Amino acid sequence: MKRLGVLGWPVSHSRSPQMHNAALAQLGLKDWHYQRLPVPPEVFEETVRGLPAAGFVGANVTIPHKEAALALADEATDAARAIGAANTLSFGVDGAISAANTDAPGILTALAAIDRAPAGQTALVLGAGGSARAVAYALREAGAARVAVWNRSSDRAVALASDLGVDAVTRPITADLLVNCTSVGLADGNFKDLPIDADALGTYATVADLVYRAGGTELIATASSAGCAVVGGLEVLVRQGALSFQAWTGLQAPIDVMRDSARGAFPDSHDPGTSDSPDRRAADPRRPGR
Ligand code: NDP
Question: How far is the C-alpha of 64 from the C-alpha of 148, rounded, in Å?
Fold first, then answer.
């Protein structure tokens, strides 16, 4: 048995097991299995070091372990080091631990899928936590013309900007792309704690929200109604998961199966995944409103 899992504390909310097990089944990898690994911080390192001997090939890492995962790795990608966090661990046959960050390329592949690659675009990132670091790094590396970061606690935005060579701003700027990397919306779906109102949202050509929840987020619903192209948090989850899957198995991840499975975990979800503008969607019968 080849084992995979997601390390977190708590981790009961994670949709990754359904998503990865559906992908493994789709590709006929019957001797692989993906499971939740609830691990408190005080035993994180010893638990991870024991995983290779227990048959684990790799693991995803979620809150609050992403920094610790990078710190214990024997080797790490340049991106994970620059971001300061890892969400994907791979174990060598000798037990060596490699760390990577697929949150960063995950947002880029989600944007590319709707022809909204950020090269030459201006971007406003909301938040200065782990996911904001990954997104700001990804946008900068992808050639965005400007990456501005706003955060409720402005000192954290300043620190992020200094670390990653982007701009910190104290109030929202207009830009081509808006990415919400705060946890605003996670609890109740609304975005009243963000410094952008519904009218201003329509000025961004593309709006992405990393938050995913049953019923979707009001940020994405409002942006979509305003004519913005949108990327929902579920789609980012699927894209980062697909990249982890490929790193472990060496196989192309079945994206559609992973997306269906992640959506199935939220039967009442209105998260659109991604969509380009309603006009283009209406013109393309392969892109029904979701
Ligand atoms: P962190 O805890 O590292 O950062 C949280 C951020 O949210 C901080 O910038 C914090 O600001 C801000 N914030 C929290 N509450 C408020 C509020 N009421 N008003 C304004 N800002 C607020 O979290 P992560 O960066 O790891 O994750 C952020 C969100 O993204 C989570 O909901 C997470 O689930 C989601 N996520 C989704 C992924 C996906 O694949 N779709 C991948 C990774 C994350 P401050 O510094 O002032 O406290």
Answer: 25
Do 137 and 175 lie in one domain? The reply is yes
Active site residue 30: no
Query: CB within 6 Å of ligand 1 — which residues?
Result: 63, 103, 127-132, 151-153, 156, 181-184, 186, 193, 210-212, 233, 236-237, 240
Looking at 184, 212, 234, the residue that finishes a domain is 234
Give the residue from 47, 116, 130 showing the smallest Cα distance to 84: 130
pTM, two decimal places: 0.92
**228 & 109 share domain:** yes
**pLDDT tens readout for residues 213-244:** 988 999 999 999 999 999 999 999 999 999 99
Domain count, the chain: 2
Cα 151 to middle of ligand 1, angstroms: 10
User: Which residue out of 15, 60, 131 has the highest number of ligand 1 atoms within 8 Å of its CB and is therefore the one to mutate?
Assistant: 131
C-alpha 73 – ligand 1 centre gap (Å): 24
Query: Which ligand 1 atom lies nearest to the CA of residue 185?
Result: 32
Per residue in 130-164, pLDDT (tens digit) is: 999 999 999 999 999 999 999 999 999 999 999 99
Q: Which domain holds residue 94?
A: 2-101+241-264
Distances (CA, A) of 68 to 45, 73, 276: 8, 9, 37
In contact, 212 and 233? CB cutoff 8 Å: yes
Q: Which atom of ligand 1 is nearest to the CA of 153?
A: 47
Are 21 and 120 within one domain?
Answer: no
As to burial, measured by CB atoms within 10 angstroms (0-12 exposed, 13-18 middle, 19+ buried), residue 161 is buried
